[in-house]
Hints:
The structure is a homodimer. Chain A is α/β, with parallel strands linked by helices. Among the domains of chain A are: 1-54, 434 Repressor (Amino-terminal Domain); 167-298, Response regulator (Rossmann fold, 3-Layer(aba) Sandwich), CATH 3.40.50. The first copy, chain A, is 42% helix and 14% strand. A 6-stranded parallel sheet of chain A has the order 2-1-3-4-5-11, with helices on both faces. A 4-stranded parallel sheet of chain A has the order 7-6-8-9, sandwiched between helices. In chain A, strands 10-12 form a two-stranded antiparallel sheet. In chain A, helix 8 (167-180) packs parallel to helix 9 (196-211). Chain A is elongated, with a radius of gyration of 23 Å. The interface between A and B is large, with 48 and 48 residues.
Amino acid sequence: MKKKSKVNIKDVAARAKVHPSSVSRVLNPKTRGMVSEEVAARVMRIAEEMGYSRSPLASGLRTGKSYTVGVVVPDLVNPLFPPIVRGIERVLSDHNYIAILADSDNNRLHEDAILKSMKVRAVDGLILATAHRKDKIVDQCIEEGIPLVLVNRTVDGRDVDSVTTDDAKGIQWAAEHLLELGHRNIAYLGGPTDTSTGNDRYQAFLRMMKASEIKSSRALVHNAKAFNEQAGYDGMMHLLEKGEAFSAVVVANDLLALGCLDALQERGLECPGDISITGFNDMPFMDRLQPALTTLRIPHTQIGREAARLLMAQINEPGRARVALKLDPELIVRGSTAAAGK
Amino acid sequence: MKKKSKVNIKDVAARAKVHPSSVSRVLNPKTRGMVSEEVAARVMRIAEEMGYSRSPLASGLRTGKSYTVGVVVPDLVNPLFPPIVRGIERVLSDHNYIAILADSDNNRLHEDAILKSMKVRAVDGLILATAHRKDKIVDQCIEEGIPLVLVNRTVDGRDVDSVTTDDAKGIQWAAEHLLELGHRNIAYLGGPTDTSTGNDRYQAFLRMMKASEIKSSRALVHNAKAFNEQAGYDGMMHLLEKGEAFSAVVVANDLLALGCLDALQERGLECPGDISITGFNDMPFMDRLQPALTTLRIPHTQIGREAARLLMAQINEPGRARVALKLDPELIVRGSTAAAGK
């Protein structure tokens, strides 16, 4: 997020052809009404384009609160996120707060633009579901002292409030379930390891390979490039092409698992007859697939509620110690897993 | 929404134990910072509780825009709404606007509180997905001159911008598809007729009964009390208990159709072997059910985009004629419908 040269208020004023004091008025919600609507719109657009904001949350210039919180999700259409957003909203509403929601469409440039736009609007804090393990946007918020909570995914090595699922436990339980069913040749299809969800689930499976009776080789451990159906299809095809026998796959999320089922069907293989599959998340309707998906249910709404509670606590008590809250998933056994050699 | 006695600024001040001028400062985003945070929070809470707002959008007191739009959905966890919200956001973002999203949980009291909260925050307009055919909240917005667009559902007999699916066409196409497959005894399971979606789909089926070779009696036409799975299950049980033969059911939405499939399974009936089923919406994963659902796909994202465009046009050109935009659905034929007597 390093800028070639730091943009200041004069640069914005010059581009917008107004006096710097007008830029200052526009970017302060309390004085915006003193400027014509046409000028306000132009200045806000140019300030966003140039990456300028007065960082009201950090500068101490601001004396009031906006009672708004920015919530950024990577993909609102992914059924994982709506119940998390609902949980966030419920708690914010109890505190007289309201959410400004933005969907970044898994695009870092969008995230950057969204963040600027939210800063211009003087949100009192942010809840981000978009974090990568190394994340410049998160770094920037921490440096600027913007109250921040990460949700679903977290970052490496920074002291930040976060609410995630205990991903390692989930993968351990999925693998143990398959071992109990008599499977020993168990493959793993993971997600992008630049996210905490992808990495923590992957590391948990590697630990299970060492500590349990899983006999598969590392050739049957593969991390897909995205958490979606196409990546799941490609990943399962990749595993099948290794030529090494396996009777079960621990899959790192439900969308990947759906792609796996497509690949099996295309190859004339049956689930669970030939290969058992476990997912992660328990998205809506996973009980209605054929076969119904064995998966780890994550406590979506509770994750959202806890994230909003942490943010409210942080806003009201800025020096408060940060908390990394991990919530347990729940193993839901359905038809996609069966006894080995059945 | 008639109040027993109109709440004024003095009532709020008395309850909050502050001078009326402080209430005025708090409720104006431009002067809120002049009051302590503790007082601001208390006044906003009390103003909301008492139903008082300074109606900045209507009063003409306001000279600036907030560049925020309120979006209210009845149930964000219903897969119908996230892609609509995504479409809205994309267009708002192009106009330098941002969405304040609220989920009313199908609760009229929540909707009322949300509306008050958004008015206090001086949104420039509203997009509501929560409309009933007679809707006091919509009436109130129209009376107060708040720019407003209805999405997915609309109201009866008011001149208001709306973007909906052509529900009548969808039901006609579903019925024609079943007639082409040779079905004549076709039942109908609808939704709540106090919504435009429920009513328009119901009326369209009644017209098809008159105009086509459908032979069913009115006993096989039933409207459920909600658009959810439980109501679909109950509705199908109700139809089966009539004792009148039918080989197909036009169902007014996908969630209802899921409940119908559960009821058929419980009664030992097969879909489509014994009874063909059509849904409405094409929610995610409807292609993965067993059988995959024949349904009407609605253009979710486009509905959202068009709604945001209409709102932007209305904000920028207040006297503009209102538009009721109806978008065509698309019939998606899958495994839940088959030839009659097969």
